[in-house]
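testing teh design pipeline on a random one, pls ignore if ur not involved
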């Protein structure tokens, strides 16, 4: 009985001695799009490759459903990031026994990351898509300067139109700090095919420095990355903004690009627009916005709402007269004093007359000369629009 126990203990010890502890670490758990992370594999704490084993690295871009595998020739591998990835590693001995590592997740921070509102409502007439920058929401505060794109490829003199700089900013990364990607690192999971040898005398060859449409040509005045271009932004990340009626498949897909001016036509309607901001090398951010157009019957002219009036009985500006209300089915005016108390309310405003600066809520006295806050509720075809602001009574 004692011999059996000793043999069992020795056998268990041999199994433990042969077991391999495989570890996988990364130098970054978050990385900017196009930049490189380093994955390192250790065996029992050592990063020196054991000649008795083959080393393999695996990558998944679908949260572990499928994996790509490469054999490692070094215990550390550089991998460019173009998606959110999971990594794991394993080693294999000459009998085919595998020892797996832990999994490591690397989150990609997009080089360009911006957001539009889901819907823009109550649009009358034509909407200029170039005005969408007014609605773009900055995700982190890092700057990216951009140019308008329309009807051609970036770099040609007639289509890369510089847009004046504004205070609008776009995200270079969610946490800031993304710089231009390193174009020299080859993805070991997707090695490139052998490219054809370019003809240096071909004027359309993009590597030909004399090609006037070559974005890297330092004499190209339309190249936004050209330091000699007076409109060149100081930020090294430059985007190209474009508008599409179907989502682009990549950062160089302009097959469904549309002109900046669109309308809903006489009957109105809705359109979904896809906005892409892309770098010259094809890195891009994409978002969509639904534009709801009013019909011609629903559209009303812009209102004129005065910011002051003087109810002193001289026949000039005695009333708070809002021009353009006759287009609406109903208008209701509410006026509040500086303490938030309602001092005036009138349904069918404009039809029932204009406000003369007096109280009609709990009294009938003239209000003092100061600033008041108003809400003007407008109804048309069952839809309500609210205008709000301040008006000064000057006596």
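output:
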């Amino acid at each position: 009985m004692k011999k059996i126990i000793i043999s069992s203990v020795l056998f268990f010890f041999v199994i433990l001695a042969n077991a391999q502890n495989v570890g996988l670490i990364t130098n970054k758990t978050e990385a900017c799009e196009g930049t490189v992370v380093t994955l390192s594999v250790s065996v029992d704490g050592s990063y020196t490759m054991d000649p008795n084993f083959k080393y393999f690295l695996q990558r998944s871009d679908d949260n572990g459903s499928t994996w790509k595998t490469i054999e490692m020739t070094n215990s550390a591998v550089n991998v460019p990031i173009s998606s959110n990835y999971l990594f794991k590693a394993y080693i294999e001995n000459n009998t085919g026994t595998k020892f797996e590592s832990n999994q490591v997740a690397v989150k990609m921070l997009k080089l360009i990351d911006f957001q539009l509102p889901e819907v823009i409502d109550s649009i009358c007439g034509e909407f200029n898509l170039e005005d969408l920058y007014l609605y773009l929401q900055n995700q982190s505060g890092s700057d990216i300067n951009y140019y308008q794109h329309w009807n051609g490829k970036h770099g040609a003199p007639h289509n890369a139109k510089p847009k004046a700089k504004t205070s609008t900013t776009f995200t270079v990364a969610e946490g800031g700090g993304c710089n231009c990607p390193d174009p020299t690192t080859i993805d070991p999971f997707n090695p490139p095919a052998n490219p054809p040898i370019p003809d240096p005398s071909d004027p359309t060859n993009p590597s030909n420095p004399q090609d006037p449409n070559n974005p890297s040509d330092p004499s190209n005045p339309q190249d936004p990355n050209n330091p000699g271009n007076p409109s060149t932004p100081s930020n090294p990340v430059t985007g190209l903004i474009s508008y599409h009626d179907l989502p682009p498949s990549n950062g160089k897909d302009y097959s469904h690009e549309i002109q900046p001016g669109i309308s809903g036509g006489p009957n109105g309607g809705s359109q979904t627009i896809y906005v892409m901001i892309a770098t010259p090398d094809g890195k891009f951010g994409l978002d969509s916005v639904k534009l709801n157009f009013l019909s011609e019957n629903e559209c009303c002219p812009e209102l004129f709402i005065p910011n002051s009036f003087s109810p002193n009985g001289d026949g000039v500006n005695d009333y708070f007269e809002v021009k353009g209300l006759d287009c609406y089915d109903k208008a209701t005016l509410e006026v509040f004093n500086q303490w938030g108390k309602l001092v005036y309310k009138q349904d069918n405003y404009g039809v029932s007359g204009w406000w003369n600066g007096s109280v009609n809520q709990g009294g009938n006295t003239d209000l003092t000369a100061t600033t008041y806050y108003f809400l003007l509720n407008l109804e048309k075809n069952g839809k309500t629009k609210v205008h709000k602001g301040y008006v000064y009574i000057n006596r």
